[in-house]
Amino acid sequence: MYDGVLILESLKVGVVVADLSLVVTKVSRVEVGGTSAEQPGVWSLLEFSVEDGERLAGVLAGVLDAPGWYADFRDERETFVVFPGRVFRYAKGDQAAREAAKEFGRGLRIPEAQLDWAQ
């Protein structure tokens, strides 16, 4: 199972995400600092587990808003980092692949402090 967090404000307005077998483990709203001009100061967080990471990554790549958003999730072996239109998938501990994903995020004007997903 892959575990991750989805910021609901990161979804394009009007999209509907259905038919995913997500297990919701927690829902919360948090006030955040260090956001970009495109991001609100309060986020709704959906913590989840999912079996089919590849399918979820494909769906999220099509529904995440741009610029400035991504989603990430992982299991004990690998990490998915999903941006609008782009998916990075790499083995745990692969620093070069992690840095490539971070560099892509910088190109989307994601604040550096937010490029902090786990390995």
**Proportion of strand residues:** 25-35%
Mean pLDDT: 94
Order of helices and strands: EEEHEEEH
> Total domains, how many?
1
Percentage of helical residues? 10-25%
Pairing-aware structural class of the strands and helices?
alpha+beta
Write down the overall geometry: globular
SS summary, helix count: 2
- Give the end-to-end Cα distance, rounded to a whole number of Å: 16 Å
Identify the strand order in the major beta sheet: 2-3-1-4-5-6
Rg on CA atoms, Å: 13 Å
How many beta strands in the DSSP annotation?
6
Low-confidence stretches: none
Query: Main sheet?
Result: 6 strands, antiparallel
Written account of the structure:
The chain is an alpha+beta fold and 119 residues long. It has one domain (2-114). Helix content is 20%, strand content 34%. The protein has two helices and six strands; from the N terminus they run βββαβββα. The protein has a six-stranded antiparallel beta sheet, sandwiched between helices. The longest helix is centred in the last third of the chain and has 13 residues, at 95-107.
For this entry, give a set of tags:
single chain; 119 residues; alpha+beta; six-stranded antiparallel sheet; globular
